[in-house]
Amino acid sequence: MTPRPTLLLVDPAHFDVHYVINPWMRPGDWAADPDGHRQAARASFEALKAALSAAGANVETIPGVPGQPDMVFPANAAIVLDGRAIVARFACPERRGEELPYLEALRGYIPRGLLEEVAIFPEGCFQEGAGDAIWDVNRQLFWAGYGQRSIRAAADEIARFFGRRVVPLELATSRFYHLDTCFCPLSGGEVLFYPPAFTPEALRVIHEHVAPEQRLEASEADAAAFCVNAVNIGRNVVMAKAPAHVRTMLEARGYHVSDVALDPFILSGGGAYCMTLRLDRSSAAAAAR
Ligand code: ARG
């Protein structure tokens, strides 16, 4: 029996939308009804937790930090593989105050045996965690997004730290500013992705590594609903409210889709995957669940 995957989530008590660092963020909408949005965020968060547990995960929740509303997106906090973590360096000054709290929080998992080592990217080496570095267990490599938040040079740092193959993919647009908004490898070897988010060269590289029958192309509506930003646990996929197109495509491949209304977080440009960080991510295929 494989152990239940452990996902880190951050309590949304300090979540809000009061600055703009990606084109989805709507501080005006938030300010029109902060209490309503806060309550909705709490309800969405609880629904996501329930969906992740039902999909087979253990959920670890840590508190956020006042003044750091985007801490609810721990996918950006670090890259984790085989008990080793490397903490992000944020490109936007608004999020830099998350680096030390995350470093501390992740170090707190060392005594518990969940992590063995926690490092941090060198200063100025902008890299926004598992949002821009996605482990593909079937291909035994990291896909690394760059060009929006993370820099190309961070890919070399990832390769050096983990001693693993890293395939850099340049992101073409500010709308899909993290790789996890437009690219999601699945346990069966398929990759769900949104082609217009990538430069022609990045698309060529994706096509080189992913066979035609494994390419699941999301539509504009799927991507805009943050459904490519999905958490995959075995045959379960948890995502924001899913258009029929993406749901049907995944169900046809034998996946079970569970969707959650994440509107308050989409108002900040984040979906289900962004709101999680898998702490027991393993390079071993047998642990792909
Ligand atoms: N407002 C956050 C930002 O722009 C959203 C982060 C979403 N995270 C992600 N991994 N895509 O940084």
Secondary-structure blueprint:
Elements: E1 6-10, H1 27-32, H2 34-54, E2 58-62, E3 78-81, E4 84-87, H3 93-96, H4 99-107, E5 117-120, E6 133-136, E7 141-146, H5 153-162, E8 166-170, E9 183-185, E10 191-193, H6 200-209, E11 215-217, H7 220-224, E12 231-233, E13 236-240, H8 244-252, E14 256-260, H9 263-266, E15 277-278
Parallel strand pairs: 1-2, 4-5, 7-8, 10-11, 13-14
Antiparallel strand pairs: 1-15, 3-4, 6-7, 9-10, 12-13
Bound molecules: arginine.
Could you please describe the fold and organization of this structure?
The structure is a single chain. The protein has 289 residues and is an alpha/beta fold. It has a single domain (6-288), classed as L-arginine/glycine Amidinotransferase, Chain A (5-stranded Propeller). It is built from nine helices and 15 strands. A hairpin with a 2-residue loop joins strand 12 and strand 13 (236-240). The N and C termini lie close together (10 Å).
Question: Any descriptors?
Answer:
289 residues; alpha/beta; L-arginine/glycine Amidinotransferase, Chain A; three-stranded mixed beta sheet; 15 strands
Task: Name the strands of the widest sheet in spatial order.
Answer: 2-1-15
How far is it from the N-terminal to the C-terminal residue, by CA?
Answer: 10 Å
Please tell me how large the radius of gyration is.
17 Å
Q: How many DSSP-defined strands?
A: 15
Largest sheet: 3 strands, mixed
Under CATH, the homologous superfamily reads: L-arginine/glycine Amidinotransferase, Chain A
Q: What is the CATH T-level topology?
A: L-arginine/glycine Amidinotransferase, Chain A
Q: Could you spell the SSE succession in H and E letters? A: EHHEEEHHEEEHEEEHEHEEHEHE
Bound molecules: arginine
Helix content: 25-40%
Q: Please state the structural category.
A: alpha/beta
Number of domains: 1
Unreliable spans are: none
Shape: globular
Please give the CATH architecture: 5-stranded Propeller
Share of β-strand residues:
15-25%
